[in-house]
Specification:
This protein is an alpha+beta fold and 299 residues long. 32% of the residues lie in helices and 28% in strands. The chain has one domain (1-299): Ribosomal Protein S5, domain 2 (2-Layer Sandwich). Strands 1, 2, 3, 4, 5, 6, 8 and 12 form an 8-stranded mixed β-sheet that branches. It has a 4-stranded antiparallel β-sheet with strand order 9-10-7-11, covered by helices on one side. Helix 1 (69-81) runs parallel beside helix 2 (103-118) and helix 2 (103-118) crosses helix 3. 44% of the residues are buried.
Length: 299
């Protein structure tokens, strides 16, 4: 058994996110195109006598290690394998949470991929993604990494070809972390916020042909909820828009947003302007599937 495994756990952005309607099981059907970016947590795992999870780094904040998805992933996989989850999990948190960037789900996926190596299971990505679906809706996407079209409650993943690198700025408003934020956002959807998924399907088809994502297809159903219910966020986004002419795009259920920037953009000036109006700014770019699923084995 490997003595130490270090796994990349990237954030994601939603290029398109449509909600199709509410299901009888209480979840919602969605159609989304997501892609991983180089805003990364680092997950390190070592053999231990018992399971332990520790978090540190600039965005560890108030995350409770006892209830973190990473520990849940280790316990779930161990139960299926029929062994004890005897592993020490250390997470360097660089992805802000909660922000809509999928940090917790990405950490859980990293644990599944890392333990597959550490415990020498050699299971397929598809099998690990099925286990990921038991932990959280976004976990299967992160098991795959890269760019993908996701349906169901998000757990049905159709990998797409790697997109051409996109440069972006991720902006986090200065608001307190909100528990159960995603559930509240889903509950606040109205019937007129639902759509047929056509935009996400069209975007996925375009990416599968190697074409870049058009700005008009970058959409997110939760933007309407924020416009109705979150005046503080609307004010922050309005201030950001005065600095950055390009349209802002919501990450998941927010509150983080991103804007795509041109190769020749003066990033330092743009960043300074956005920070001046209160945003925490992360410079990022999209990454390939192989970059998103990188594992380092330390013997």
């Amino acid at each position: 058994m490997n003595s130490e495994v270090r796994v990349c756990a990237p954030a994601k952005i939603n290029l398109a996110l449509e909600v199709l309607g509410k299901r009888t099981d209480g979840y919602h059907d969605i159609a989304t195109v997501m892609t991983t970016v180089n805003l990364l947590d680092q997950v390190t795992m070592r053999p231990a006598d018992t399971l332990s999870v520790s978090l540190h780094g600039s965005h560890a904040g108030d995350i409770d290690p006892e209830n973190d998805l990473a520990g849940n992933a280790a316990k779930t996989l161990a139960d299926i394998v029929g062994r004890s989850p005897n592993v020490q999990i250390e997470i360097k948190k660089m992805i802000p949470s909660p922000g809509g960037l999928g940090g917790g789900s990405s950490d859980a996926a990293a644990v599944l991929r890392g333990l597959d190596q550490m415990w020498e299971l050699n299971w397929s990505v598809a099998r690990l993604a099925e286990i990921g679906a038991m932990i959280g809706s976004d976990v299967p996407f992160f098991v795959h990494g890269g760019t993908a079209y996701c349906t169901g409650r998000g757990e049905v993943v159709e990998p797409l070809r790697d997109i051409q690198k996109l440069l972006l700025l991720v902006l986090l408003p200065p608001i307190p972390a909100q528990r159960n934020k995603t559930t509240e956002m889903f509950d606040a959807l109205h019937a007129h916020d639902f759509s047929n998924g056509h935009t996400a399907r069209r975007l996925a088809h375009r990416i599968s042909r190697g074409a870049p994502p058009p700005a008009n297809d970058l959409t997110n159903a939760f933007e309407s909820v924020i416009e109705r219910m979150k005046p503080e966020l609307v004010a922050h986004y309005g201030a950001y828009a005065t600095v950055s002419a390009p349209r802002l795009h919501l990450c998941g259920a927010g509150p983080a947003v991103y804007l795509l920037v041109h190769q020749r953009a003066k990033l330092s000036e743009l960043r300074n302007g956005l920070e001046h109006v209160g945003a925490t700014v992360f410079e990022a770019h999209t990454i390939t599937r192989s970059e998103a699923t990188k594992i380092e084995i330390v013997s």
